Amino acid sequence: MKVAEWIGILAGIFTTIAAMPQIIKVWKSKKVDDVSWGMFCILILGVFLWTVYGIIKEDYPIIITNGISTILNSIMLALIIKYRK
Amino acid sequence: MKVAEWIGILAGIFTTIAAMPQIIKVWKSKKVDDVSWGMFCILILGVFLWTVYGIIKEDYPIIITNGISTILNSIMLALIIKYRK
């Protein structure tokens, strides 16, 4: 596999799992006052559209990375709604 | 332009500007206690690698969207470092 493919895979993994530390932090602290729900709404919309784009193009790396991102960022948005005062 | 291209452009715009609401919220509140710096470190690494991927592939939409994301998420990380207690 070429260098570009390895960089693409690494990039996809990092951008996919990026929400994890924030989910874990909120899961422990139960505090979301400083976290922007707007960011996660826009992010979910974006990665969902990337998933649709991947489905149309039948591009499995794009479908998988953005599909997982849609789920993780939706979990984060649910936590914000749950713990928001 | 085909539907897929429009969806890709919209997806790119949303994922690029997603950090803006969080930057504005922190800029106003000066509070970052609940925000995960880990998320932004991983996100910056990911979108930076996507930018490198785009440069190798000479894919300008990928370079532009992820280049802007790298800048915006770096600004957010700087704000976290600045306002962290």
From TrEMBL, chains A, B:
<feature type="transmembrane region" description="Helical">
    <location>
        <begin position="6"/>
        <end position="24"/>
    </location>
</feature>
<dbReference type="InterPro" id="IPR004316">
    <property type="entry name" value="SWEET_rpt"/>
</dbReference>
<keyword id="KW-0472">Membrane</keyword>
<dbReference type="InterPro" id="IPR047662">
    <property type="entry name" value="SemiSWEET"/>
</dbReference>
<keyword id="KW-1133">Transmembrane helix</keyword>
<keyword id="KW-0812">Transmembrane</keyword>
<dbReference type="Pfam" id="PF03083">
    <property type="entry name" value="MtN3_slv"/>
</dbReference>
<feature type="transmembrane region" description="Helical">
    <location>
        <begin position="62"/>
        <end position="81"/>
    </location>
</feature>
<feature type="transmembrane region" description="Helical">
    <location>
        <begin position="36"/>
        <end position="56"/>
    </location>
</feature>
<protein>
    <submittedName>
        <fullName>SemiSWEET transporter</fullName>
    </submittedName>
</protein>
